[in-house]
């Protein structure tokens, strides 16, 4: 897999780079302190290189997820949560990421497993982030009523499995359909609610009940 890292803190960026360079699964790596540096890298700007996964640190800016998805629409986004303080978890909750990993949990083994899970369409989410999302749901005010999109019975089955964290392959196996069909159903569900990622969809469904 090809991986990009955007992390303004040099010590953390260097540590992530050192781990990633040791992983045989990572074929090409770009590490930068900000998005401008990544987008200006010769292989990106001139060569058309696109990462399979972008690893983003919590200090990378409020709109980093939107800008990354604009520049790399087919790349997965893995968000590194700096800590368990409220501000750290709130930043993670607002990020439209495809997966999360706690900074204090980052090891070579944990990192490669999380990267592979994200690429497989799963939604790795540490307990701390999941608990914070649920707490936001419990304490938030009821959202305004709005017209809900129509979901077919099959799409409703897919939604239930998405909320359980199933990957596309697991959804296909549980429902007895092809992997291609599972991907098509997931894409249709996300499109109907205008969700850019599985994580955003799960948070949205939890928030809206």
Automatic annotation (TrEMBL):
UniProt GO MF annotations: DNA binding
SMART domains reported in the protein's UniProt record: HTH_LUXR
Keywords assigned by UniProt, alphabetized: DNA-binding, Transcription, Transcription regulation
GO biological process: regulation of DNA-templated transcription
Domain HTH luxR-type: from-to ranges: 144-209
Keyword Methyltransferase: no
Protein name: HTH luxR-type domain-containing protein
Organism, scientific name: Actinomadura physcomitrii
């Amino acid at each position: 897999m090809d991986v990009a890292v955007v992390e303004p803190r040099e010590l953390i960026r260097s540590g992530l780079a050192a781990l990633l360079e040791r992983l045989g699964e990572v074929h090409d790596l770009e590490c930068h302190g900000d998005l401008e540096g990544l987008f200006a890298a010769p292989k990106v700007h001139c060569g058309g290189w696109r990462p399979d996964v972008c690893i983003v640190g919590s200090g990378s800016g409020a709109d980093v997820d939107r800008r990354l998805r604009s520049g790399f629409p087919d790349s997965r986004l893995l968000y590194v949560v700096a800590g368990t303080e409220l501000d750290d978890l709130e930043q993670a909750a607002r990020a439209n990421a495809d997966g999360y990993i706690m900074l204090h949990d980052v090891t070579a083994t944990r990192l490669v497993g999380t990267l592979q899970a994200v690429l497989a369409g799963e939604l790795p989410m540490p307990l701390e982030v999941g608990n914070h999302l649920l707490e936001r749901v419990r304490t938030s005010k009821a959202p305004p009523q709005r017209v809900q999109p129509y979901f077919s019975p099959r799409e409703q089955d897919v939604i239930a499995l998405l909320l359980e964290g199933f990957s596309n392959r697991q959804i296909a196996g549980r429902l007895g359909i092809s992997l291609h069909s599972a991907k098509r159903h997931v894409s249709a569900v996300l499109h109907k609610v205008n969700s850019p990622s599985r994580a955003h969809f799960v948070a949205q469904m939890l928030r809206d009940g």
